[in-house]
Amino acid sequence: MAKPVVIVVGADKGGVGKTTVSRTLLDYFSANNVPTRAFDTESPRGTLMRFHPDITEIVDMTTTSDQMKIFDTLNAASPSVTVIDVRAGLLSPALASLRDIGFLDAAKSGQITFAVFHILGPSIASLDEIAETANFMVGAKYFLVKNFINDTQFFQWDQATYNSYFHRIKDATELTIPKLNEMAYEQVEVASVPFLKFVANKGTHDEAANYSFVLRGYVRHWLANVWSEFDRIKLTDLVGSGKPGARSGEK
Amino acid sequence: MATTPVYIICSPRPLVGKTLIARQLSEFLLLKNGDVAAFDVNLKEPSLLEYLPAITETADVDKTYGKMALMDRLIVNDSIAKVIDLGFHVFDEFFKMSEEIGFMKEAARRGVAPVILFVADTDRVSARGYETLRQQIPRNALVTIDNEHVVRGELPDSMAQGRILRIAALPAFLKTYVDRLTFSFTGYLRHEKDSSTELHQWIRRNYLSFRELELSLILQRS
User: Of A51, A104, A122, A203, which one has the greatest count of Cβ atoms within 10 A?
Assistant: First the structure.
């Protein structure tokens, strides 16, 4: 199998949709048959845990024992992809601790593939973080995710300011998550299932469910758009699996 | 299991006879099957609800909730034919939504057969609307209605390619007569003894066209 892959999803602000993006990533990998595990740092009660209980563990990134749980098992564990959903406000500290344990050096020397999905909030404050996190980002793939799922207006940003921050990071790729119909989003929340299962009209344990056809349609359409963004940035190449396209569940 | 037809009568133009056709088709299906469910998505024009209150429900597609209420009913294969009178102002919204949620494909999977009855007109809005449908709807599920009263024998070439259903124009005095809220097509056939009147023949001809349309749908699928 290829090198272990670690994907960190984070932002310094809450409510910008980190967990939503993590969920689409997990759905994407499961549809592409990439074995995946996930860590939710929102201890003790993780949202990601609620949607993907089978593959998610709750950890506290700041404690040594949990750092060991995540990083010492990278080579041993069979899943090739590890997705870490970093709690609001913990991205920079988390990256700092990754640097301290030598993880970033390992990424730099190419032993590990390391990618960061940085979810952007709508304000300038979150641009300052870009500058902050950029310092850690040598050797990592850096994705800036503009999340429109909760109707964020990115155009309020002053383009010049925006560019000055963006160009500070080399090789940063921009990614757009489109808006999902509010009702559809809410219904998935209530159902507490992965997006994929919602589209397939299944409950938590694969039992037949009875979700609205319209809402399922919206989710399917939206998920296809999100995945085409992941296809665009060649996410499956990054994790060293086969070509995108031959996945189940998407029709 | 037999498929359930869903007739969607639509046009991006007002006053082309959508409701007239929806009324007749509903009455025809009621006569033939003893059952029909009609939906009125038409809040600004004279509407189906006023004519056939017993079998018609209102629906709207402005809000997600309305879409759910309508579409979740349409997608059920319950052997009750559905007729939708789609107002001109929701034409774009409806077909945008149906494309997004994959209505045609899901319908095929569930044994529901949507038939789009597009009431033709000669203007540009209609041409554009028809083009939208042509890209989205499978060829054999799209029927152009050539309403003589509207098109006056000049059906645009682009619309003349596919399947066509013709409705002859009525003289003005008969038109006012059938436009009355209390008028029933089936009722007229039953009570008018003289079968040679123009209206009698007109209704029978239209019922015959609907019958043929239905037959061709059955044949297509077998």
Answer: A51
Residue B75 is encoded by which pair of tokens?
């997608």
Q: Please indicate if any CB of chain A lies within 8 Å of the CB of B29.
A: no
Chain B residue nearest residue A210, CA to CA: B72
Question: How much is the pTM?
Answer: 0.81
Q: State the CATH number of the domain containing residue A176.
A: 3.40.50.300
Residues of A in contact with B68 (CB under 8 A): 183, 212-215
Contact B159/A at CB under 8 A: no
Q: How far apart are CA A5 and CA A213, in angstroms?
A: 36
Quick check: is A156 in a domain? yes
Domain ranges, residue A45: 5-181+220-238
Return residues 114-173 of A near B (CB < 8 Å): none
Tens place of pLDDT per residue across chain A (251 aa): 467 888 999 876 777 788 889 999 999 999 988 888 999 887 667 788 889 988 888 888 778 888 888 888 876 656 678 999 888 777 878 888 888 888 888 888 888 888 888 887 666 565 666 667 777 777 778 888 888 776 656 555 566 766 666 666 666 788 888 888 888 998 998 999 999 999 999 988 888 888 999 999 999 999 999 999 999 988 887 776 544 444 544 43
Distance of residue B68 Cα from the nearest chain A Cα, in angstroms: 6
Decide if the complex's ipTM is over 0.95.
no
The domains of chain B, with CATH numbers, are 4-221 (3.40.50.300)
- What b/e sequence results for A187-201 when a residue is b if at least 16 CB atoms lie within 10 Å of its CB, and e otherwise? bbeebebbbbbbbbe
Do residue B100 and residue A221 have CB atoms under 8 angstroms apart?
yes
Number of domains, chain A: 1
- What does the angle CA A229 – CA A234 – CA A238 come to, to the nearest 5 degrees? 130
